[in-house]
Amino acid sequence: MENLEPTEQVEQGKSEKNSGPLIIFIVTFILVALALWQFSGGKTEKRAMDSSELLKDEPVTKVTQPSQAPKEETDLAAVIPVPEVIIPNVADTVIEPVVILPVLDESDSLIQAKLPELTWRNELLSLLITEDIIRRFVVFTDNFAQGLLAYEHSPLTQPKLKFSVDEDSADAEGSKDVWKWNTENSKRFDLYVDLLRSVDSTTLVNMYFEVKPLIDEAYSELGYEEDFTYTLQDAVTRVLDMELPKSSMALTRTSVMYKYQDPKLEGLADSDKLLLRLGKENLLIIKSVLLEINEKLSKKLEEEIK
Hints:
The chain is an all-alpha fold. The chain has a domain at 96-305. It is built from 13 helices and three strands. The protein has a three-stranded antiparallel β-sheet with strand order 1-2-3. It is elongated, with a radius of gyration of 54 Å. The protein starts with a helix and ends with a helix.
């Protein structure tokens, strides 16, 4: 009996030591269960049921999706037009050569090389002054458009034949120192008119726009800012608007210089009086050629602006 109590105490101590972890596990489980219940809104999750039980115990609610019309297949090729790609025929493509222009002071050689392309009467090119060609052309044209004559800047040589009067026609109209117009004076300009008539107008206009930067540079040297082409057209228009006189072109002289007896003719601008000296036939030919050149010049100018 003396050994019984200690033995029971030992077993009881062992029992208490073995039950401690179990109590902690149970408490922890309860706390976790309470936490899950709280975060789930106080609802408990039902156990999963197989399909046979679900059909037996609970009514089946059939969920019907709203009906949708079947989508029509969209043909993107029909909605978005595909641009037609046109591949140019290389054989039909005209490639224009790029012309590198020299400086204005060194441009005479370029112009001289191109002059034979303008006319089939190359022997008449000797009538042109081939020194400072572009500046001469610009200055003379600018003056001519204003009714002036800048002989020192003329792009053409002077006629070999000098102006003359018919001495036999002196006092022909009963007035002292009055002479009839000598038609031979107009023939002095025949070669110049032949040169202009032989020029290919299309080639001339293309050449003009080819060297136009140099022409505009020469024009700006005179203090102008506008396009020289309009001045050129003014000069051409002056020729086209020139009317042949109906009165006699009789001459008179009160000094060294001859003058027109008719005050209206004598009152014309210097450029207009030069046109009179060309003679009727030559003036009509020049008008015809310049009319064609002016039309092509205007058309080319419109293309350049576009």
